[in-house]
Here is the input.
Amino acid sequence: MDARFTDEQDEIRRTLRDLLDKRCGPQELRAAVDTPAGHDRALWTALAGHLGLPGLALPETCGGAGGTVTELALACEETGRALAPTPLLATAVLAAPLLLALGTGAQRAGLLPRVASGGLTAALAVPGPALATALALTGHDRRGQWAGGGRAGGVQARRAEGGWQVYGQVDQVLDGHSAELLLVAAHTGGFARSRVLLFLVRGDAPGLTRVRQTTLDATRPQGRIQLRDTPAELLGEEAADALAGLARLGDIAAACLAAEAVGAAARVLERTVEYVGQREQFGRPVGSFQAVKHRLADAYVQVQAARSAAYYAAWAAAAPAPGAETAGPLALAQALEALRRAAAEGVQLHGGIGFTWEHEAHLYFKRAAGDELLFGPVHRLRAQAADAAHVFEEAGT
Here is the structure.
């Protein structure tokens, strides 16, 4: 493994950081999350049109840049640093890899160039609070019970004249209220022979109702979608293994989420170091006290270790090797822990101002808490990695 970044990868980071520093400051961030979509459409157009961000990990034949998960993770690190409210996670990290891996030739040709150009946003809709389970990050349900189990509830799909129809409700869909294309996981075949398939649902399809939800982390907008006999198109072939595709997506998602969390943790730690160097108490900067130094040094070591783990997870997702299946969950667990630690130190060491809505420290704390609710908790990520590596199995069993 060559741990050095290429000149192109370094340029992606520099260019993206410069753009976000100019276009995604605290005021712009708050204005963006207050819009109906929950993100700045002009910023998304700039990220897509000037930098080609949605297509970084898509092949050139599909209109992308021909990069790998590593480039996408580096971009997520920078958007995480700025807490940039964009459809990057929902569209490029969760939806695009599924379209590429499972879609038919016609579906890939019709959808992926639009995704790569930023002209089409997409979201993955998984029934129930089970996104991490569906991605095999905190468990591996080989029957897809999280999708409703073929019983009442969840999302059900049935054949209709000329195609399929889906019926049900999904309460937590990242960017589900604004995405122009939904990838919906649904059960079909009844309870006895039920199986999970993925379906494409247009954002303007009849029978589809969408409402933006109030979330802990406003920079990570979510929507509730209701499907009432909504026309849908099967993603790929009916014989495709959707559950395996979702599990493979988990490696990509974990690496990108870990990098994003590392970027956020590093930024809030930087801001905290700056502040304690300026704030004075007893006639000297707060940062000169040994106890404060130790706390910040411990947080710094934790962030740097999480960064190394996130980079390795991105490399492993781009070039799978034996044993690499545990890299994503472990990196994500370490990154979420680092972000929670750095954000908590940021709130406390900023003093009373860190607890106010007006200060951005609480935004990073909410990102830490919100991500762990969506993709954790940390102990379950580690438990899943241990199970995948057969850590606790006795030899010979």
